[in-house]
Amino acid sequence: MKINYPDNEEFYSLSFYVDKRVLIPRNDTEVLVDQVIKTLKSAQNQDISFIDIGTGSSAIVTAVTKNTPISLKQIFAVDISLDALEVAKINIEKNNIQDKVSLYNSDLLQIFLSWNKKIEAKNLIITANLPYIKNGDIENMDQEVLDNEPHIALFWWEKTGFEMYERLIWQVFELKKNNRFQEIILFIEIWFDQYEYSQEYLKSLWLKYQYFKDLNNIFRCIKIQF
After folding, report:
1. What is the distance between the alpha carbons of residues 14 and 79, in angstroms, rounded to a whole number?
2. Which residues contact 222 (CB under 8 A, 6 or more apart)?
3. What is the pLDDT of residue 4?
4. How far is CA 107 from CA 4, 5, 55, 187, 219, in A?
5. DSSP letter assigned to residue 96
6. Of the candidates 140, 71, 76, 124, which has an alpha carbon nearest to the alpha carbon of residue 103?
7. C-beta neighbour count of 21 within 10 angstroms
8. Of 48, 59, 157, 205, which residue is least crowded by CB atoms under 10 Å?
9. What predicted TM-score, i.e. pTM, was given to this entire model?
10. How far apart are CA 144 and CA 91, in angstroms?
11. Which residues contact 151 (CB under 8 A, 6 or more apart)?
């Protein structure tokens, strides 16, 4: 069955254009945006830049940018897919934040690790809703989603589905080591069966973290402090 994409898809009370190049924004992801905004509200040091990794339709970066309680020093949205960045550009302009958000093509944080342009703020917030479904987990997926939404945004690796987040976490360690950040906070969205694995992994790295549940009472978002 082919998805009939609406002209407007709502996420966080904002309007987004979507097509087969990106995932349709889900309500479950709003818990991540909620926690980013709460963190910004309580930030004692408001010298903060923001990076959204795997931005897709730009739902997360747009929702945060439109609702941030403080003035963010820089806002970046990156994706490895050039097709996704075309859709992100449409939505950033649709929501009138093109003067605030810079779009870049990058494999996770690679552009910031190899780029001579520095992130200007002393503190950094990163969000990521990356492919976290194991390649063998097709039985847990709706057939309509499998037929119509980009698999590059859904599936990654064979064992846990958390492998791409492991790559990102080590890139965050490298970014913090090579720069003068006082703190980096990473918010990620996980699959319904990754709570125990992700907790063991984060414990092994001695990181401070906190889980948040979605509307279905499933652990969906993790806040990780570096």
Report:
1. 21
2. 187, 188, 190, 198, 202, 209, 210, 211, 212
3. 52
4. 30, 28, 12, 17, 26
5. T
6. 76
7. 19
8. 205
9. 0.87
10. 24
11. none
How far separated are the first and last CA of the chain, in Å rounded? 44
Picking from 35, 44, 65, 46, the residue whose alpha carbon sits closest to that of residue 121 is 46
Strand partners, 76: 51, 102
9-225 architecture in CATH?
A: 3-Layer(aba) Sandwich (3.40)
Domain boundaries, the chain: 9-225
**Token pair of 19 as six digits:** 């097509």
In this structure, the strands spanning 183-189 and 219-225 are: antiparallel
Running along the chain, 226 residues long, what does each successive block of 10 average in pLDDT?
Answer: 62 95 93 98 94 97 98 97 97 97 96 83 96 57 46 52 93 92 96 93 98 95 98
- CA neighbor of 161 nearest in space, from 189, 127, 187: 189
Q: How far apart are CA 174 and CA 188, in angstroms?
A: 18
Is the separation of the CB atoms in 148 and 3 below 8 Å? yes
